[in-house]
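DATA SHEET
Item: assembly model
Revision: 1
Owner: S.N.
Input lines:
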Amino acid sequence: MSALNIKKGSSSHSAYDLRDPNAQVTESHTLAVLVDNEAGVLARVIGLFSGRGYNIDSLTVAEVDHTGHRSRITVVTRGTPSVIEQIKAQLGRLVPVHEVHDLTVEGPSVERELALFKVAGTGEKRIEALRLAEIFRANVVDSTLQSFVFEMTGTPAKIDAFAELMRPLGLADVARTGVAALARGV
Amino acid sequence: MSRQMTGARMVVQALKDQGVDVVFGYPGGAVLPIYDEIFQQNDIRHILVRHEQGAVHMAEGYARSTGKPGVALVTSGPGATNAVTGLTDALMDSIPIVVLTGQVPTFMIGTDGFQEADTVGITRPCTKHNWLVKDTETLAQTLHQAFHVATKGRPGPVLIDIPKDVQFATGTYQGPREAKQSRYQPKVKGDIDAITKLVEMMEKAERPVFYTGGGVINSGPAASQLLRELADATGIPVTSTLMGLGAYPASGKNWIGMLGMHGLYEANLAMHDCDLMINLGARFDDRITGRIADFSPRSKKAHVDIDPSSINKVIHVDVPIVGDVGHVLEDLLKVWKARGRKVNKEGLAKWWGQIDQWKAKNCLSYKPSQKTIKPQYALERLEALTRGRDRYITTEVGQHQMWAAQFLHFDAPNRWMTSGGLGTMGYGLPASIGVQIAHPDALVINVAGEASWLMNMQEMGTAMQFRAPVKQFILNNERLGMVRQWQQLLHGERYSSSWSESLPDFVKLAEAFGARGAKVESPKDMDDAIMAMIEYDGPYILDVMVEKHENCFPMIPSGKPHNEMLLGDASTEGAIQSGGAVLV
Ligand SMILES: Cc1ncc(C[n+]2csc(CCOP(=O)(O)OP(=O)(O)O)c2C)c(N)n1
Ligand SMILES: [Mg+2]
């Protein structure tokens, strides 16, 4: 039997699904999922993504309504338009899910992420790090003679850019929260 | 009426209040309080199975044949893990069942206690929803919610994990009516604009086809009735998936047979060549579509499904309608009548002419034999001798299952129980018992392969104990026939481990359980053997020795479009190319 000519990464949704996965461009979408904050709800959402082979680029979750026990899950995912539609439909049919919003298509939205950066160094590098932090409006939340911890909120792109600049200046550690997002206006 | 009672009593009370009359189960340490309550009442019958997988398949058989949810009760740890196959089966085929599992007491959860398993973790992906109840106060609410979720929207299996201390503790019981209204209320009415658009397309279509599935049956008997009315009034041909058999009667004039991998030539070609495909409660499963790129290339497609995630999952459709098939059919009929009952008469007449030509191929024909029993012949005789009776059929999985779907005919819904989506060998025997428990006076036959049947054969004990006179019609080819067929077509006739070696003597096996058995080896004895099986008042095994290397046709090889179907043993060589070999 000759080698099977199947593209790497072919979707496994259907045994017959031999569509070229690259035939359509993939898009990044930010979804806001409002759920009952019941036991296992996060596992259910994450399990859906892993079980069906969807991507998670970023995930944040916290209870946003303490009396109603509602949590908001913000997930940044990637896929072709039809996969994105499937993800939303699959999320929508989970029993504890109240609402699914695709912030990427439902009008303008704001996205923010919080990050902490530990930068270790002395002399010129230390001064340069502090100067760049000021430009990026990062706050110093901890300092020793050999290090700073900067705190910054911004878009993921801004955080990436800052991390890039800090790398040669002694970036030792990064912690990021993942994206929180809301639609603009009312 | 709210009352104080123990969690264990609440379980039994809630089952009664939900109209449950039978529970299939197996006891163990973590469910003893519930078993104690079952012992002290007479409204709910408990069927003691021999393996928890059997309990879940029985609950499925019960549910599929009645339209009511089936209930299973098992212990923690191994009891729960044994239930996983049945849960997955029910999820794939959208069968409403409620499974109750015992759990170690709440204060021991997470300590690797004896017979502890993370049951909600293990079953999260194979249930529609599941719950771990940690407080007796919330137990009644959860029980009622479980029945609601299992049956509303797209039906499916749910599981409630109940720690032993929650069963012992006392709490407040609420009946189904006092319980908080569930927020889970899937939409049942279809969008009327989309329905009107579909009617317009139906009026003009030259080559329309109804592609129906298990959703019609799940929607209830009214949906089947409406389908008949609509199909008969419009003259549009009807095909069905494996799961939908019986929704439209096989004796109906618009019936063109089952479609799919082993479906009829005329049904698959009608799907391929149609100009309007109306999918009612089916899901474009890969057994149906074949190669996606070549699936019905020239048709407009409408899809009615209660589950929004089914729509555009595999096949892009032009008219999506989210709603319950029954409700949508009702509106479809109303709108179609109100607009003057129009159809494209000329187009339809030509279309039927074409379909009749395809039918003339007689795709189910096989080479008859005087010497050996052909499996198709055995089923033809079974059909002839049981037709018109109050008959229910279950199957195992394999060639025999496909032949049963081809050669047995169903004129009503809920009469055909088979494992479609998961293809679970071992489903049929326990399912037949579940059906028989629900319909004690009916003729219930499990069409089985010898290999599948052995997977849950211990349930013969259950059939005996509870006097379920199920008939086990084993088409014994001494092969894992379907595997062998694929090896013949795909793997150079290297029959790797597809022989059923060291088979038991099925007649003696029947006798060992206290049942009756017989073996039939010659076509001339077939009718007598079937009649003896039907007339015996008790569980019965008929060991039908059939042709060993018969292949199941028609067959659409993996990765092929509908119009490249194999009709017989001729020209099967090289039929499946390397690209198809990786598919299942
Ligand atoms: C639990 C399980 N294991 C394996 C398979 C793969 N499988 C599909 S059909 C088949 C052979 C079934 O043999 P038998 O029951 O004798 O039926 P036949 O095809 O011979 O009619 C096998 C092994 C399956 N469907 N289910
Ligand atoms: Mg066999």
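QC remark: The pocket of magnesium ion (ligand 2) is lined by residues B 398, 449-451, 477, 479-481 (CB under 6 Å).
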